[in-house]
UniProtKB/TrEMBL annotation:
One of its GO terms (cellular component) is cytoplasm. Belongs to the PhzF family. The active site is at residue 48. GO terms for molecular function: isomerase activity. This is Phenazine biosynthesis-like domain-containing protein. Keywords: Isomerase. It comes from Crassostrea virginica (Eastern oyster).
Amino acid sequence: MDIPIFIVDAFAREPFEGNPAAICLVGPEQELTEEKMQKIAAEMNLSETVFLRNKEKNGSFTKGNCFHIRWFTPTNEVNLCGHATLATAAVLYNELGNPSPRLTFDSLSGELGVSRDGNGFVMNFPLNETILQDKTDYQKLLELIVSMDCVDTVEYSPTTKKLLVRLVDNMTREQLETLTPDISSMMAAEVTGKVKGVMVTLRGSPENGSVSSEGETYDFVSRYFAPWNGIPEDPVTGSAHTVLAHYWGKVLKKQTLFARQCSRRGGDVRMRILEGNRIDLVGQAVTVLKGSFLL
């Protein structure tokens, strides 16, 4: 059995930027068990591998517009992955020439929509709310990431199981980028299953170095750690920005946001907060590999 596979750098304008994802196009007659999908994701060893099927039995990837999508990390399946959804749309539009004005993906997080936006793509996702927390409740975990003196606020997103850690405003982008969390100890410090990822974020300003290469100030910058899902640090995370946008949108009183995820690869994300607890995430993507998975 041959399964077409692509690797795409999402939230990137050039190869080797952003967050890479593998996309497997599974045909209507091809059967893949969850065990086999997990093994493929482990073999790819990227933060996420997508398994895409056409929703219609006789539908095609080149003309269809409704699909079933699943995302696997090297260790487990996840309910939502933004960058891999962006990468999937890039394959359908750019590599296969799909003419549909809007692509719809049925997922464990509900229906997700993607359309073109100039040179990039717009993903329509749920906006995930946060709840203020007592930071001392997470002190053991936080101290493995950053000094408690540097923590301003801690919030929690129950729908995504992500913890949002806002740093004090007098910290700099460089200080955020040079944090070295103790990843293995983080897993030992949180074993309840409540937290599946930690976002560390800082309000952007020219003074703290949060400026793009084009001179535009970021509204906020962040990093994201998810060792509980087999991802020590994710390069650029769409799902995290569905949470970050909710928080920073309230703080900054803005509906349109521009952010940078400050991993080693890094990537820019634009966000538009919509009515009905929805959000548009906007980004670009670059295909870097095409081939077949032989099973």
